[in-house]
Amino acid sequence: MTNSVDRETLLGFAQSFAGKSKCVDCQSLSCAGWESVPGGFLTNSLECIGTLRVEDAPECWEEDHPKGTTMWSKDAPISILFHPYNKSDVYECKHCGCKYLRYTECGGYYVDERIRELNGHLIT
Length: 124
Ligand SMILES: [Zn+2]
Prior knowledge:
- The chain is of the alpha+beta class.
- It is built from two helices and five strands.
- The longest helix is centred in the N-terminal third of the chain and has 11 residues, at about 5-15.
- The relative contact order is 0.28.
- Helices cover about 10% and strands about 25% of the residues.
- It has one domain (about 5-120).
- The two termini are about 25 Å apart.
- The structure holds zinc ion (ZN).
- Zinc ion binds next to helix 2.
């Protein structure tokens, strides 16, 4: 079973990487805001370390943008009770320890794996 991650734990994850440098794999990944996982990126270097999903929680598709950001903004807040963070898992790079959030967007005709770097300053 995947560990559930609360806000405190998430902040701890973010802080554990603060000030460290990324490995070559992670440097190739540019995802300060949400991005589709690039085709060439080897996601097997990322290890799931927890989930923000809450078992049996009511579905919430609302997004949290008090400062006029959009879901794609690099400075959009990371509000874990809101979409898409409430559907995200937390991953860690096995090489450098950089932390990421990932979720799968399921549209009518497509499935899109999305990834965003975990930035502790944006956690609300
Ligand atoms: Zn890395």
